[in-house]
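re: ur question from the group chat, yeah i did fold both. here u go
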Amino acid sequence: MKTKQESIFSSKTLSYFLQLADTMNYTQAAQLLGITQPALTQQIKKLERTVGAPLFYSVGKKLHLSDAGRTMLEATHSIYETLNQATDEIQQASNANSGVIKIGMLASIESSAFIGFSAQYYKENPDVQIIFLNMTRHEIWEQLENNQIDLAIMYLPDDTIKNWKPYESRKIVDEQLLFLHHNEKLAKRKRVHFSDTIAQPWVSYPESYFLSYFLHEAYKNQMVDYPHIVAQFTTPFQLLQFLNLTGVNTALPNSFYQAHQDEIDAYAVAFEPAVTFELAFIFRKGKDTIPRVEQFLNRFDAYLEEQDYLSRVAENRVKLV
């Protein structure tokens, strides 16, 4: 028979509680966890019976943490922090030239430079296994929090995470979005105003994706209506294909355009004002002192010192053709 401690502190129970505390929405939390809403509700009620107090309460349709819930949340974060620190301390004694490095990457990021670097790194360090995982930004933050990935490659600034104290970032390159279109009247422009980009329909990323959210904010700041979206896809390759087949517009990062411009049947121009952001490594504080992670990051820096990021993107794209 399980003890009270085993019932409370099972990995599944805590992950369910944390996800609901993060979203404050049973439906959304259940979808992210890959379970049904009744199953999530049952698990939370079971946890509340075990601790002897309600962890959440509702005001209208809005969910809130109770005092007991806030106490449980602090305790849960403390437990995860202790486990993460123990894991990092164990790994810090490991060999720089062996082991596994898990990296979460946004699906919207052009990956050719990272694949090229990984191939080079493998030749130098054949006993280090590098695992790249395509994720949404919410999945990345969850797995960073739970120490399930060592590094994340994503765009900044990202307001998904409210508490940056446990994390560090290392910039890879400054990025900007390009407007891709089929209007010959705009073809020779070096920059295009937001108001000139909405005459034709668009294909875009889903609204929850960083680039879609970031672009929404840019249009809002320019006080221009957001373009009419006729389709949404999760990878830049899907956007490219739909763009070519239909003649609609879109916006894609400059690095992706540089890597695939020969495949894109559209004109590309920067926005005015420019829509800029940062591509960066994100990791938990102290993670870069683990020998194999430290060596990986330092070698990547050297890789870009030898040749800049956009050149690496173009170089490795040519090799793949």
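okk and heres the other one u asked abt
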Amino acid sequence: MAAGGSAIRGSRVGAGPMGEQDHGYHADRVAISYWDALGNETVRYFAANLPDEEIPETIDCPSSGLPAGRDRNNPPEVSKLEPYKTHLAYVKERRSEEEAEQLLDDALRQLRERRGTNA
């Protein structure tokens, strides 16, 4: 026969006299439904005595990761993500040589003014 621990088969180890009533599960709750742009519904529970202004209007939907709102007919829009830019796209956005020289001259002039030198 194996000896050890005082746990009874089928009981939780470390469980004490605390039950659901000690964890706050007995509190009155209200269910609020949120919908995302794909039509997914998420139900969140809030304390019934919580003021309506403290209940968030939008949440992040756990199933899609999109924002979800309380209005089923008008859910929040899916944010427009910019596609990944390649190096060539950044090169095309670079300023012209004249603009770059002017920016450099302005930066050097501001530094010289702060230092008080005209060299």
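fwiw on the second one: The CA atoms of residues 30 and 46 lie 5 Å apart. The beta strands are 29-36, 41-47, 58-60, 67-69. idk if thats what u expected
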